[in-house]
Fold this protein.
Amino acid sequence: MPSTKEIKNRMNSVTSTQKITNAMYLISSTKLRRAKEELERTRPYFRQQEYEIRRIFQSEHDVVSPYFYPETGRKPAEMYAYLVITADKGLAGSYNYNVIKAAEAEMKKHKRTKLYVVGEYGRRYFLKHNIPIEQAFLYTAQNPTFRRAREIANILLPEYKAGNCDEIRVIYSDMETELLSEVKVMHLLPFERKDYITPDENKSSKDIHCRFHPSVSEALDRTMPSYISGFIYGALVDSFSAEQNARMNAMKAANDNAQEIMSKLKLQYNRVRQAAITQEITEISAGALAQRRKHENKEA
């Protein structure tokens, strides 16, 4: 049985760990709130861009753009590019594991793939398992900004336009609720035309007349890079929010476990301490009894 000193040392260790996990919980909750606020401030701009793209397709039905599948339908893709968004560190439950396993499952479906990784955790994992990385965007996971999303888009878009990849997909975690996060595999490029025009809109588009200068294709070429950057930015923020939420849940579970361990240690400490006190009292009583008998024997 451990001594009271050993139990006390372990209680101090658990208390120190609990302070760290509690601090990490508070930090993650603050980061989560700020990320959500930043996304809500920028979301109206990207919604307006999406509206303008819809308006183009409502007005012009024969739009030809490399950003969209042709009207004849999809062509079999040969090269797939994956943008995988992970965290820069662990201590977030199964957050990183779920994203990486989804990426590996997707890449196994195709013979030719290119891998673009956000986050130090994912970069180290793929390098450790000898999975080639086309490019790693270091440390962008911790601070998602539109500027960094644009930097990623400026690397992916030239690759797509040059024909070095036929499809681009984004794999990231999205926080559905405070208790549930889902890994999503989103189709980034090319876009589906049907997502930007519905049959009802097609019927009402007869009365829509828009003039584009210098041309519809030029208007799309100027609009799409910002829209795609916004898409990537939204994925970065959603992934960052899911990471912080996962870390909050992990730290809360750690705090609850620490509290349970502390309760058991306190009970064990009290039992050991009571046993020690009882033993001391027994020894004192036995000593006093021995002294009294010795004194009685001398008098006799």
